[in-house]
Amino acid sequence: MKDLGLSSIGEKKIYWAEREMPVLRMIMERFSKEKPFKNIRIGACLHITKETAVLVKTLREGGAEVYLCASNPLSTQDEVAAALVKDGFNVFGWRGMDQKEYYECIGHVLASRPNITIDDGADLVTSIHKIKYNIPSREITYVKNIISGLREELLENVIGGSEETTTGVYRLRSLSREGKLLYPVIAVNDALSKSLFDNPIGTGQSALDGIIRATNTLIAGKEVVIVGFGRVGSGIAYRARGLGARVTIVEVDPINALKAVMDGFNVESMSTASKHGDIFITATGNINVIRREHFNLMKDGVLLANAGHFDVEISKKDLEELSIRVERVTDCITTYVLKNGRRINLLADGRLVNLACAEGHPSAVMDMSFSLQALSAEYIVRNRGKLPKEVINVPREIDLAVASLKLKSMGVELEELTDEQKKYLESWHLGT
Ligand code: NAD
Ligand code: ADE
Fold first, then answer.
1. For residue 190, what is the DSSP state?
2. Helix (H, G, I), strand (E, B) or coil at 26
3. pTM of the prediction?
4. What is the CATH number of domain 4-196+362-409?
């Protein structure tokens, strides 16, 4: 953690977030009576934000001992980490960590021998698996140096885990396809009360917030190119259009591309869009979607930002190789001066722009995502030993409960089916 002196600022921010997270507060209240996590250690690898602080407080209220490390080297809000440490939490992370420090922090969380892992991007769960399967890598050496002799005990204690984001779920499904997943993991990302709100609405707003905070650029009238029109990319596209941008979509999936066309967006290949875009935002979860041949076509002064989980979507290697000079403009802007004289501005070193240059999703959206996390952790404990070693969906009743509680907290009324309607919907007798 960077500086304990920041804790009072962090405390106020956590309090601010808590006010916007009524569903999680209700769960916290119940947990504090029922203590579902008595004798449970939870290891979490999440963005260390004020919203994550409310989640870990909820888990502790339920009786858990919580160990938290950063899930991205640039996303930690240092004042929040300080407040959590002052409050007695075990927190490992600060903004601006290098690769070695990042994996050492994962090592510290694993050294606590967690019973439950909570991941955002699957670095915690894949570290456990790489250690177990003896898959060598520099990162794993850093983890092993911290956990020293703990290899076998690591898994003895784990009863299950959960995953927050799309890329993490991809990685888990890959482990599962290879028959290597060693414990049940709940795909919180795929719950409807997460992926219909957090991915499009949360990232839609916070990615643009990050770009605006970093550059103060005017979005209106700009040619904004969104690469990937999935859950995240579509949310960014609608909001960029709402701010007055002319939006172009780049997609590989015919259905999503057609959806973008029918929603009135311009859809093009990456090469065509590269020639006219002013701002490029990647949201694919894929590698090198903007690369050498695209940089060579771009106009002078373009902005590049990434909203996907890892910093692999925009090829930094290609940018460096094409450049005669690299200038650090601010904490969030790096300018690459290409051999052709044009300047390309990369935000947040290609890492998640919403968390590195702004504060991540608003608390009101994280309320649902983290309520699902809290209830999924409770589900894992209550079903200890009964869940398959697979990627598991959030049970439907938990998903519906979170949506219902959110509506209730907003004072929104739900219509109820009459008995006649229920019967009608279940019957095939009545027709034309
Ligand atoms: P998704 O699967 O719904 O969408 C990804 C889209 O990208 C798909 O439509 C896919 O066809 C498209 N795509 C893949 N490769 C492409 C390429 N080369 N060119 C153009 N399009 C391509 O996934 P999602 O839920 O939208 O998540 C996208 C990424 O955002 C993931 O890495 C996820 O983890 C991350 N994410 C980030 C945040 C955040 O806070 N920044 C929040 C949620 C998710
Ligand atoms: N992911 C996106 N926004 C976030 C936030 N505010 N806190 C934790 N994780 C996030």
1. G
2. helix
3. 0.97
4. 3.40.50.1480
